[in-house]
TrEMBL record:
<dbReference type="Pfam" id="PF02628">
    <property type="entry name" value="COX15-CtaA"/>
</dbReference>
<feature type="transmembrane region" description="Helical">
    <location>
        <begin position="235"/>
        <end position="259"/>
    </location>
</feature>
<keyword id="KW-0472">Membrane</keyword>
<feature type="transmembrane region" description="Helical">
    <location>
        <begin position="279"/>
        <end position="303"/>
    </location>
</feature>
<feature type="transmembrane region" description="Helical">
    <location>
        <begin position="167"/>
        <end position="185"/>
    </location>
</feature>
<keyword id="KW-0350">Heme biosynthesis</keyword>
<dbReference type="GO" id="GO:0046872">
    <property type="term" value="F:metal ion binding"/>
</dbReference>
<keyword id="KW-0812">Transmembrane</keyword>
<feature type="transmembrane region" description="Helical">
    <location>
        <begin position="197"/>
        <end position="215"/>
    </location>
</feature>
<keyword id="KW-0560">Oxidoreductase</keyword>
<dbReference type="GO" id="GO:0016653">
    <property type="term" value="F:oxidoreductase activity, acting on NAD(P)H, heme protein as acceptor"/>
</dbReference>
<dbReference type="GO" id="GO:0005743">
    <property type="term" value="C:mitochondrial inner membrane"/>
</dbReference>
<dbReference type="InterPro" id="IPR023754">
    <property type="entry name" value="HemeA_Synthase_type2"/>
</dbReference>
<comment type="pathway">
    <text>Porphyrin-containing compound metabolism; heme A biosynthesis; heme A from heme O: step 1/1.</text>
</comment>
<keyword id="KW-0479">Metal-binding</keyword>
<feature type="transmembrane region" description="Helical">
    <location>
        <begin position="341"/>
        <end position="360"/>
    </location>
</feature>
<protein>
    <submittedName>
        <fullName>Uncharacterized protein</fullName>
    </submittedName>
</protein>
């Protein structure tokens, strides 16, 4: 009888273990299905604080079950708002640098300083110092072919602009570097933020070198297969401008993430919206880069009519260079036509994106963002046409370059706004902690 009782007890214990394991499996499966989207909402209730909180908390809890840290990296720890405002200030300073760089290019001031000193230098003071600096400039093709009658006073005006551009670049480095050291020393740079800031530090430090690499190309004799006009390499100018765009975008998007923290998950109804937004951001970026080649080739000084190009849809000389790839970067007719097509395609795509946004339920912030995006795209195309028709005056050309960066900024804000709102993230921290304890208890 004792043996029978023991056998019965063992069976009971085995059944209890199986029941516990089954309950645990069902619990973890429920959490996992939440992450994979099987239990996602079919409407925008996920944007309501209560539902968003539960969704984020489940995500956090599920991540913690399968990780050693037990904390979802997007939620904890939070970053000081001071770091966000610092990054926002850095992005504004880079924006100013891009505009100043455009003015420097449009006034043909960029080649007035014929050497590069990473540590910086003061401009000439005495007449002898100015004469010596002017003599350096006279040795290079730009003076000899384009400005043989330039006076010393005219040289001073372009020299000061280039000097200001270079000093502004060093100032941006200080604005970024000094607070970075301070925040790092105070422990305000989180582990998740450190790689991005490290990348920004490297890219910002190398931007001056990229700028000199670009300027140096303009101090050399023009290639024999070119039009003979001294100018910087359009490839290097595009690299310099693209790097500036990337630095600005990283700063702005990171600042938005700190000041308005959002969970990485996107509510299911907005998945299609976000995928279209990513494609649109890519198109806007490619259009801006094509504008760098227009600037590098000074293509805006030709075909100053719209919508036709000197009475033709396809201009004379289009795709006339060999090998064929050069037409995308070095041919004035081709570069300008491609930029026109990309710009109008961007406006069309933004309009279609706006129409799509009217047909899906969106939070008020996102709906306003799409409205502003459409206005920004229309304004940028209008600026571009006005710049072309007026043969690129400095103020219009600078405004057009600033407009490209502004439009991309609106696009970045729109992408950021597709994530779960910060209020839900903040509320989810406590809920996530509670659900994490429950998950551990069932594990």
């Amino acid at each position: 009888m004792l043996v029978a009782s023991t056998h019965t007890l063992r069976q009971t214990i085995t059944m209890m273990k199986a029941s516990v394991l089954s309950s645990r499996s069902k619990f973890l499966h429920t959490i996992s299905s939440t992450i994979s989207g099987k239990a996602a909402h079919s409407h925008l209730l996920a944007w309501q604080p209560a539902n968003a909180t539960r969704s984020i908390a489940r995500t956090c809890t599920s991540a913690s079950v399968g990780s050693t840290s037990g904390v979802h990296p997007a939620l904890v720890p939070s970053v000081s708002p001071a770091v966000g405002w610092w990054l926002m200030g850095c992005s504004a300073s880079v924006f100013g640098m891009v505009v100043l760089g455009g003015v420097t290019r449009l006034t043909r001031s960029g080649l007035s300083m014929t050497d590069w000193r990473p540590q910086g230098s003061m401009p000439p003071v005495s007449l002898d110092e100015w004469e010596a600096e002017f003599a350096k400039y006279k040795r290079f093709p730009e003076y000899q072919r384009l400005h043989p009658d330039m006076t010393l006073d005219e040289f001073k005006s372009i020299f000061y602009l280039e000097w200001a551009h270079r000093m502004a670049g060093r100032a941006v480095g200080i604005i970024f570097g000094v607070p970075l050291l301070y925040f790092a020393a105070r422990g305000k740079i989180t582990r998740g933020l450190a790689p991005t800031l490290g990348l920004l530090f490297v890219m910002g430090g190398s931007q001056g070198l990229v700028g000199w690499w670009m300027v140096k190309s303009g101090l050399e004799e023009p290639p024999k297969n070119s039009d003979g006009v001294p100018r910087v390499s359009p490839y290097r100018l595009a690299a310099h401008l693209t790097t500036a765009f990337v630095i600005y975008s990283l700063l702005l998007y990171t600042a938005l993430g700190v000041l308005q923290p959002r969970a990485p998950a996107v509510p299911e109804p907005l998945a299609a919206f976000k995928s279209r937004a990513h494609l649109l951001a890519l198109l806007i970026g490619v259009t801006a880069i094509s504008g760098a080649f227009v600037a590098g080739m000074q293509a805006g000084l030709a075909f100053n009519t719209f919508p036709l190009m000197e009475g033709r849809f396809v201009p004379e000389g289009y795709f006339g260079l060999e090998p064929a790839y050069r037409n995308f970067f070095e041919s004035v007719p081709s570069v300008q036509l491609h930029h026109r097509i990309l710009a109008l395609s961007t406006l069309t795509a933004v309009t279609a994106f706006w129409v799509f946004a009217q047909r899906v339920p969106l939070p008020p912030t996102l709906r306003r963002a799409t409205d502003v995006l459409l206005l920004g795209a229309a304004g940028q195309v209008t600026l571009g046409v006005a710049t072309l028709l007026n043969a690129v005056p400095v103020w219009l050309g600078s405004a057009h370059q600033a407009g490209a960066l502004t439009l991309f900024s609106i696009m970045l804000f729109t992408l950021h706004a597709t994530r779960v709102p910060s209020s839900a993230v903040a509320t989810a921290r406590m809920s996530a902690a509670r659900m994490h304890k429950v998950a551990l208890a069932h594990a």
